[in-house]
Amino acid sequence: MAMVASSGTNDSIQNMVIIGSGPAGYTAAIYAARANLSPLLITGFQRGGMPGGQLMTTTQVENFPGFPDGILGPDLMDRMKAQAERWGTRLVEADADRLDLQQRPFLVEADGDVFRTHSLILALGARANRLGIATEARFWAKGISACAICDGATPQFRGQPLAVVGGGDSACEEAAYLTRYSSEVHLVVRRHELRASRAMVDRVLANPGITVHWNRQLVACHGEAWLESITLQHSQDPEQREKLSVQGVFYAIGHTPNTELLKGQLGLDDGGYVELPCPGAPNTTIEGVYAAGDVADRRWRQAITAGGSGCQAALAAERWLTESNLARLMARSQPEPAAAVLPQQQEAATAASFDPAAAWQKGSYSLRRLYHESDKPLLVVYTSPGCGPCHVLKPQLRRVIQELDGQVMGVEIDIEVEQEIAQQAGVRGTPTTQLFWRKALVQQWQGVRQRSEFHRSIANLLDHGT
Question: What structural domains does the chain harbor?
């Protein structure tokens, strides 16, 4: 894996920096790397989403060409990432913290490192919206979620009535997905019709596990320690209200472009999307800066259109670098790069396969053995199949364990397979990470965190016992 470590100011000038790692960012990287431009890609980490973009929170992607039976969103992004790396893309797994588009070369700061670049491709994507109702913060992660794929399989939601808010493809997909676990799914639609694709509409309306509530809006959530019910209001008649008993609400209500870093530096439209002066071209209002994907697309917002715009941006940047006599091409030692490396699924350990010295294992058998027998700190991550954040986090945890050189052990628990373990652990969503030492729970994290945060907590435990 081609990684770039943070080490202060980087004195070399990059041909191209790409910010964002969804279909647009990775496609741009593939084209630029094959052109021997050795692009640097800043994946993003927490701000505005996660590495891999919105497909990391999608189950089956059935409309991406080349996969006739569909492909899981995280698996598709794993393939794009591996292809970009195979051709020489260098990754910085961090958020872009600051841009300066007024100087040349352009300046990009990420994780304490400063990069200068002749060209820049903005593939920043968009993030899921929230409703902003009064009790939203209180019940966030305690019944309210923006990712059914991540959290739908958790014990608190199994066999319970659930609700999805939205009327597009994402809402329909999440409602259908949740019928695997829920006793009933309520789809709350603000309008009198669904905005989803015809195939999705047909699928939802034919599903007996889904009840559609037309012309309704979510206006309140109720409960004690966990969400217990919601109030719906008629979109045209505020006096019409009804209460639904549900244990979970999943938002699928659109997205906002991640353009905070660009304000005051680049042309944005009234919705915050990057302005493209020439429709159909990736050029922004600054020469040498290009935009691709959802950050500039307020209409289509599809994986395939994002990928196509990433291709356009890379080709336009390559042409501009060449015409401006700025490109410095990488010399390849071999004309054909080594085969791409894809993440491999690990099998759960059994009594026969358990290795007490293995730094990373899977399953409840390993957890029980290490919990009772190991004198080292134990890092346990609870995951679910298709969970994009889990895809992001697991490699980070593995790297932490490698960096600590055998001083800590790691175990992965699939909550769909190990439901009882997840329930005993009080898991309310994935990924959940717990740090144990001497049979005591020392710390717990919900969601994705920076690798340094885990490293620091474990190092403090090893040094001071706290």
Answer: 9-127+255-323 (3.50.50.60), 136-251 (3.50.50.60), 360-464 (3.40.30.10)
